[in-house]
Amino acid sequence: HVAGKYSNKGGRDKEFLQLNELDFTTPAGPFKANMRITHFDAPEYRGKANGVLSLKMVHALFNLPYVETVSGQVRMSTDFGIQTRKVVDGQSYYSVDHCTGDLKMNDVNLKLEDDKRTFAHMNGTLFLHDEEAGIDHVSLSIGSTDLRINGVFGNIMNYVGQAGALKAQVEIQSDYINVADLGTTSKEEKIQEGNTYMLPSDICANID
Question: What element of type H or E holds 206?
Fold first, then answer.
């Protein structure tokens, strides 16, 4: 079910699509949202969303940047503002102006581009309140390594925009850790490239 309004009165700079009701049901479950779309050359999306989404479907629709494959479901309750950024190669990327809310993960599997790791069977809650993000009772596996994580991350927007360091306070528990599972490249690639570090240099973290 979709209900809303479109107008281009006043020219291109005033053009908008207002979706007051955006309701649908997928195999993942019901989803409701309202959204305003402007600047159609590089669309800006602002609105609220509540419901359950298939991440595989989201990736198919929006081609999430830096994501190679993703599956599983998330239950979200969020208020967001997202701006499309177009680059020379013609692909569209997205920057987050603001985003507050919660994401509850259900058996999420994620692999990023140019990264040997697969973050598998992720469950738990992520929350984001603009400059601060948190992880609440998140469990996952990476190869043979199992992790249970709680934590808070600060200075998110500056870090994403490469304008500052990410601040983190994290508690990690595990029954088994294989250090080789945690790096983004294989042991052979690290030797070839001369890389031995595990974390980027622009993360200021306390890890327990």
Answer: strand 203-207
Whether this prediction's pTM lies above 0.90 is answered by: no
Model pLDDT for residues 120-152, shown as the tens digit of each residue: 999 999 998 877 889 999 999 999 999 999 998
The CA distances from residue 201 to 128, 158, 169, 198, 208, in Å, are: 23, 15, 16, 9, 19
Q: Is 193 helix (H, G, I), strand (E, B) or coil?
A: helix
CB 43 within 8 A of CB 84: yes
Per-residue pLDDT for 204 more than 70? no
Decide: 79 and 100 in contact? Cβ < 8 Å.
Answer: yes
SS3 assignment, position 158: helix
Q: Which long-range contacts (CB under 8 A, 24 or more apart) does 48-57 make?
A: 48/78, 48/79, 48/80, 49/76, 49/77, 49/78, 49/80, 50/76, 50/77, 50/78, 51/75, 51/76, 52/26, 52/28, 52/76, 53/26, 53/28, 54/26, 54/27, 54/28, 55/108, 55/110, 57/26, 57/28
**What percent of the chain has pLDDT above 70?**
80
Burial label, 4 (beta-carbon count in 10 A; 0-12, 13-18, 19+):
middle
